[in-house]
Amino acid sequence: MGLEDDAREYHRQDPPGKIEISTTKPTNTQRDLSLAYSPGVAAPCSDIHEDPDLAYEYTSKGNLVGVISNGSAVLGLGDIGAQASKPVMEGKGVLFKRFADIDVFDIELDFDDPADIIKSTRAMEPTFGGINLEDIKAPDCFEIEERLREEMSIPVFHDDQHGTAIITGAGLVNAADIVDKDLDDLTVTISGAGASAIATADFYVSLGVRRENITMCDSSGIITSERVEAGELNQYKAKFAQDRPAGDLADAMEGADVFVGLSVGGIVSQEMVRSMANDPIIFAMANPEPEIDYHDAKEARDDTVIVGTGRSDFPNQVNNVLGFPFIFRGALDVRATEINEEMKVAAARALAALARKDVPDAVVKAYGDQPLQFGPEYILPKPVDPRVMFEVAPAVAQAAIESDAARKSIDLSTYREELEARLGKSREMMRVVLNKAKTDPKRVVLAEGTDEKMIRAAYQITDQGIATPVLLGDRDEIWTTMDDLSLDFEPEIVDPSADELEPYAERLYELRKRKGVTRREANELVRDGNYLGSVMVEMGDADAMLTGLMHHYPSALRPPLQVIGTAEDAEYAAGVYMLTFRNRVIFVADATVNQDPGAAELAEIGRHTGELARRFNVEPRAALLSYSNFGSVDNQGTRKPRRAAKMLRDDPEVDFPVDGEMQADTAVVEDILNGTYDFAELEEPANVLIFPNLEAGNIGYKLLQRLGGADAIGPMLVGMDKPVHVLQRGDEVKDIVNLAGVAVVDAQERDE
What we know:
Elements: H1 3-12, H2 30-36, H3 42-50, H4 55-58, E1 64-69, H5 81-84, H6 86-100, E2 103-108, H7 114-123, E3 130-133, H8 140-151, E4 156-158, H9 159-178, E5 188-191, H10 195-207, E6 214-218, E7 221-222, H11 225-229, H12 235-238, H13 249-253, E8 258-261, H14 270-274, E9 281-284, H15 294-299, E10 306-309, H16 324-333, H17 341-355, H18 361-366, H19 387-402, H20 412-423, H21 429-439, E11 442-446, H22 452-464, E12 467-472, H23 475-485, E13 492-494, H24 502-512, H25 519-525, H26 529-539, E14 544-547, H27 553-563, E15 574-580, E16 585-589, H28 599-615, E17 622-625, H29 636-650, E18 658-662, H30 664-668, H31 670-676, E19 688-690, H32 694-706, E20 711-718, E21 724-726, H33 733-751
Parallel strand pairs: 1-2, 1-3, 3-4, 5-6, 5-8, 8-9, 9-10, 11-12, 11-14, 12-13, 14-21, 16-19, 17-18, 17-19
Antiparallel strand pairs: 6-7, 15-16, 15-20
Domain Malic enzyme NAD-binding: 161-401
GO biological process, one term: malate metabolic process
Domain Malic enzyme N-terminal: 16-149
């Protein structure tokens, strides 16, 4: 399947769409229900009737944004109508929730008349804490936003207008500083005269650019006073008309300090870039093709050329997700009546300031360890930078307070901590790993290459640039399956039944000849995908290996253990699951390999699991689990984890806190850990849980996954000499893709 078919399947999967409503209070007993609804709900209703502001205390209004559209200007699709725009509006809701923990109702209005949209939206004010207008055509969007801002007492924000303006504004502040130019001296040429272009021009004036220094071009050329007098322009374009001769975009760009492209791709040439002033700033934001290619713009001249685009594969991506979730977060948290110019400027300057700060290692790793340092190729923070929330939202909240737009006072000194608690970090885990994998893709053997899931995973791995997959299996069967699935890619395939495998058979014989394997048996074994894949990794013809979908775990693990073996500092391999919850992530071991490990094995498993946690940028805190708390039961079974904990504490190579033996709730519940057992080595709940045996570990992780609602990533093998991961039978394509990313990052780190 191609991207479009994958997107259809993504949206079609049960439940359809991308968002749902979930409860935030217990609803398990009759009393719960009587509090949630009748008769108890009458009390908050009566209170709100007396004091409407109590709606923010008794309901979700304060964290609820309405994303409202009529689908008249959907990016890349145009006027497709209200119904067809719903997937986009749901997607906007996903971004609000994902990046700022803001809930959304998407409202698609089947109206063409701005007056109808204004009336309907205004009537919904009791429901929402804020309104995000989306994909409404110009000039209707200007009238709708202006009227709603005047008539409603909650924030109203048209992201299509202001999002790009704010993000490029942040980039402009930094770019001008880098090339040593003052904002009020800049001459700016804007290609495009739609909603985002006009809003960007207005916002640049708010930042300090002089209005008379902005030249705007539409499809007919430069917007001039003469065209205003001829009645060619609406009132929104007319305010940027210049008293200058008519001309085209090339004329407008000559001598300009800044070019802002909000139009169509490929309309700017290198010659036009060369005509600009020294050290030009170029924001070419048409998607998917910019007005001028990033590299073409950089190579057009020898001085400093700062280029930003809307694309993620070039530096300085102008991405609206850097703005709107966090602007609304700050506005909602102070119950702002509007999102005013001061709040937008504060957001832009906060983003600009953040780009000047030292970038966390996690963000650097997510972008391939490339230098991320303030300069021409880093004028904006990266979208995955978790600090954006903690910089922009407080700046917006403070600006709202100082401009008298806030109806609630908050303690700005503790606000960042509240934001951290609200959002959490666990959802960043796989994004960080997959982005890191994309920077230096490795060759990953998929040993069960004829399995449909493996083939689909190979396609996604290739499409996302995570790795170069090598499928092992019958070539004709793989191609037939690919044709049936309409997968348009050309993976590398090694066919054990047809290809020349003599070098691999010889190597397998050398490794196993004193383990009872004859040369003839080596020739036969190498036709098995698990043995072949293991030898390929051992010989360096591949960097990592995934298997396990079509085999029981022990039989899938046996070949890599025999051929690749454990690392120099390891006696045992172990299986680890990463379980992510809303605000917590834990690593669980051993869940797949060692049936009844001794104290030394538990200690080694604990050390390797802690090292794995750090690969995900999690500082480990390990607990050795039992049914005993610190000697409350003393027998052979409880002494084993107790000894393992001591071994880890005594190990000079272990630089993270470890304690045990302890019960599971002691390990993960702070009140028990620090209240009842204040002598514990762990000051915070454990995030690395080492179970006393395989049975307990396997049962524990599956209960947490199925009943606790955790997302499970794994099993990840630790202790192996090279990256090998054994999937569980029944794992989905996403599990294979995720583990491929983990394997690639593991291989990258081994290369360092």
